[in-house]
Amino acid sequence: MEITANVLLAVGASPAMCDTPSESADFAAIASAVLINAGTPTRDQYEGMRQAIQGATVAGTPWVLDPVAVGALQERTDFAREILQFAPHAIRGNASEIVALAGLGSGGRGVDATDDVAAALPAAKQLAVQTKGVVAISGESDFIVSAHQVTKVDSGHPLMPIVIGTGCALGALTAAYLGAAHIRGIAAHDAVVAAHAHTGAAGMVAGESARGPGSFAPAWVDALYNLTPEHIAELVTVQEVSSS
Known about the structure:
Elements: H1 2-10, H2 21-30, E1 34-37, H3 43-59, E2 63-66, H4 74-83, E3 90-94, H5 95-101, H6 121-131, E4 134-138, E5 141-146, E6 149-154, H7 166-184, H8 188-209, H9 213-226, H10 229-235, E7 237-241
Helix pairs in contact: 1-7, 1-9, 2-3, 5-6, 7-8, 8-9, 8-10
């Protein structure tokens, strides 16, 4: 939570980790966006997430599902598939999580993907059609998938997968970008692309100075804070690919 909160603050968002059942619905109704992260849930947090989804749905608040380790553990897999009926505005996960969430594979090794990003495209497309939302597959290249659009984002650094919290933080940034885009009338697909571009560009900058994962983490947060839109555009390659 601390890592995610620091990342959100670095990009100008205002985080609140409100996961108690008695408060989450009310907070979701007044928030700009909501992240549902199935990281290490307790019974109360499962209920808190359900309440947050209910509050977001009633208020029309964009919400993001991060299906952490779905496929590897049954309870969270059942939970994530259950809440798909409420149509998340975006889903963000690694290839194995996306494949497992769609019911087309068994998942990865815990939070680590064992499936290739490109191989998860059919699963992402299926989920995008099912939810009428955006599905992002994170990996060496990121693919952002909507029902009729697929965008490839090339950015990032090899140290990112071995630094705790980068994936969860990306889910939170996706929610923040969706919230900002929703207010401004910007397409959800473009918002999810921008979140991945910002995250990956910061990884590229941090990798220039980091000597290992320990020094990479603070450099990455600093880069998220300091990067301009123009610099992000210079660093990141964004390509539209066939949606078939």
